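REQUEST FORM: STRUCTURE PREDICTION
Request ID: SP-0412
Submitted by: Lab K.M.
Chain count: 1
Length (residues): 120
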Amino acid sequence: QVQLVESGGGLVQPGESRRLSCAASGINFSSYAMGWYRQAPGKQRELVAAITSGGSTMYADSVKGRFTIARDNAKNMVYLQMNALKPEDTAVYYCHADLVVDGERERDYWGQGTQVTVSS
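STATUS: Completed
RESULT:
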């Protein structure tokens, strides 16, 4: 059974930092690209950051320079370090695991999400 379990969400003040964690089980973790998505009320889910199985990273323009994604293959964990948080970062953050083979998505999985609220 595949599980992606996010943790670390909560209420933070603008300018503060927060680290989200995602624990993966039931998959060959090191073979998957991992990502963090978010969905704010009334908006579509959007990709925030991703890291390939090889460790390459990408970020949405809105978080570049503030957020950092990292993975620990030994622990089957992926992290999202969020610095200088803004109210517009308020959203439910989802962990995503993506198995891409020869350029084609073979399968993917989602966590249940963790709420991050940035407010004073």
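NOTES: The chain has a mean pLDDT of 97.
Reviewed by: T.R.
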